[in-house]
Specification:
The complex is a heterodimer of chains A (307) and B (156).
Chain A (H helix, E strand, L loop, with lengths): L17 H15 L11 E6 L5 H12 L3 E5 L13 H8 L5 E6 L4 H8 L4 E6 L5 H15 L6 E5 L6 H10 L5 E5 L8 H10 L2 E5 L11 E4 L10 H8 L17 E3 L20 H6 L1 H12 L5
Helix pairs in contact in A: 1-5, 1-10, 2-10, 3-4, 5-6
Chain B lengths: L1 H7 L6 E8 L3 H8 L7 E9 L3 E9 L5 H4 L10 E6 L2 E6 L6 E3 L19 E6 L4 E4 L5 E3 L12
Antiparallel strand pairs in B: 1-3, 1-4, 2-3, 4-5, 6-7, 7-8, 8-9
Classes of the chains: A alpha/beta (307), B mainly beta (156).
């Protein structure tokens, strides 16, 4: 295919094209099916989590350990030398000599890009502030393709906080490579920012904006939910008024089609009622589990053990 | 009026003339270009202009300013004209082109961007040339260029 990820860092969706995403998806599928076993044996991966994370860090740790690799690192900046005033640049220049790849999360935006300039090993961005979280998007896309075969021709609803959520922004960029229709479902205060809707217009992607989830949702192939946080509202009364419109429970999922899958990047708080976890359209835990093979494939490609 | 003008800001024999800077941006343009010349710099502010109402102009004597320097003006005054003078005549009428990338000259307005928190040179891709919008290569935020984003060379 002419795509070679060896030695490459994964910082942002904006560095990727459609062919590369599809190639990564193909390899993730192979890994999930049991091919490339032991693909990280003899490899050492550092996880530098300057900002705490549970799911992403554990998912990477599981991914490395299951494939025979070694993993070390820290899970908050309190336990790193950042506490002593060391710069990110110096931390990375040091750790790059200890491992074959670095997975990092940082609250500062652009931190992963900076790290990739000074590291001799691939950097995997596991989240930089409100900017990017590409491996979440890869596992989202993988899950969609696994469920429906292809992304082309699908209608995808993004619901909740579309203004501040980096997950939905990254996902939107990835989806724009495909022939999709999008529906944005959010309160006025948390609408998809204009620079993203402008971006979709330039790419010729059709999108709709809905105030609430209603019967139109029956046509969706996927409904991707995100949490609405109270602190995003100037007026707490307004939050109380709108929050119920974006909660999925037994009643509201009746609006969805028989094959509308429900996704969520997790953690959820109260935007998806536990009572629907058993519904076969609820695939958010499966989605989280897909993080393991997708991250394994990504590391294998970056380290050149999958070709 | 035009007859008076040469007495107000003297005609130069050699150097660079930046004309048609919309007022009051003349001093900002000077700030952007910084102390690129040890020679005489004459500045004229608030001349009448058919094109922009009021205009400012700057003349650098004995100094041909490099194109990558004058292109920086595009971010605040793309309407300005640049003439290179030799032997009292215009030898080059230079266009001002918005560059495709801008390195280490603008500040990213995102306080949580790495370029504002560690010693990292800023770097932007120009995503729109008409209004001049730039995207930070680090935090990926898009900004319409405003004068307060410009790092003042030589004078700061």
């Amino acid at each position: 295919m002419g795509i070679d990820f060896k030695g490459r860092s994964f910082i942002s969706l904006s560095d990727m094209n459609k062919e590369e995403i599809l190639y990564l998806m193909e390899k993730s599928g192979e890994v999930k099916a049991g091919k490339h076993k032991g693909l990280l044996s003899g490899k050492t991966v550092a996880t530098l989590f300057f900002e705490p994370s549970t799911r992403t860090r554990l998912s990477f740790e599981s991914a490395v350990l299951q494939q025979g690799g070694q993993i070390f690192g820290f899970s908050s900046s309190a336990s790193s030398s950042t506490q002593k005033g060391e710069s990110l640049t110096d931390t990375i220049k040091t750790v790059t000599g200890y491992c074959d790849a670095i997975v990092m999360r940082h609250k500062i935006e652009g931190a992963a890009r900076r790290a990739s300039q000074v590291a001799d090993v691939p950097i995997i961005n596991a989240g930089d502030g409100a900017n990017q979280h590409p491996t979440q998007t890869f596992l989202d896309i993988f899950t969609m393709m696994e469920k429906k075969g292809s992304i082309d021709g699908k209608t995808i609803g993004l619901m909740g906080d579309l203004k501040y959520g980096r997950t939905t922004h990254s996902l939107l960029v990835a989806l724009s490579f495909f022939d999709v229709r999008l529906a944005f479902i959010s309160p006025q205060e948390l609408k998809m920012p204009e620079h993203y809707t402008d971006f979709l217009k330039t790419k010729g992607i059709e999108f709709m904006e809905w105030d609430v989830l209603d019967e139109k949702a029956g046509d969706l192939d996927f409904l991707y939910c995100t949490r609405i946080q109270k602190e995003r509202f100037f007026d707490p009364m307004e939050y109380e008024r709108v929050k119920g419109s974006y909660i999925l429970d037994k009643e509201s999922i009746q609006l969805l089609g028989d094959s509308t899958y429900i996704m969520h990047p997790l953690p959820r708080v109260d935007e998806i009622a536990e009572e629907i976890d058993e519904d076969e359209r609820a695939i958010y835990f499966e989605q989280a589990h897909n993080g393991v093979p997708v991250r394994q494939a990504l590391l294998g490609l970056a380290l050149g053990t999958i070709r | 009026m035009s007859g008076d003008r040469s007495y107000r800001v003297f005609k130069i024999e050699e150097g660079t003339v930046i004309d048609h800077i919309p007022s009051p941006l003349g001093l900002l343009v000077l700030d952007i270009l910084g102390q690129v010349s040890e020679g005489i710099i004459s500045i004229g502010l608030n001349f009448d202009s058919r094109r922009t109402g009021k205009k400012d102009l700057i003349k650098y004597e004995h100094k041909v300013i490099k194109k990558e320097e004058t292109d920086k003006i595009a971010l605040v005054a793309p309407q300005a004209t640049i003439n290179i003078i030799k032997g009292g005549t215009v030898v080059e009428k230079r266009s001002i082109d918005v560059p495709d990338t801008i390195e280490g000259f603008l500040t990213c307005m995102n306080p949580n961007c790495i370029t504002n928190l560690e010693k990292v040179k800023t770097s932007f891709d120009v995503v729109e040339k008409e209004k001049v919008k730039v995207k930070c290569r680090y935090c990926e935020r898009v900004w319409e260029v405003k004068p307060n984003m410009i790092e003042k060379d030589g004078r700061s």
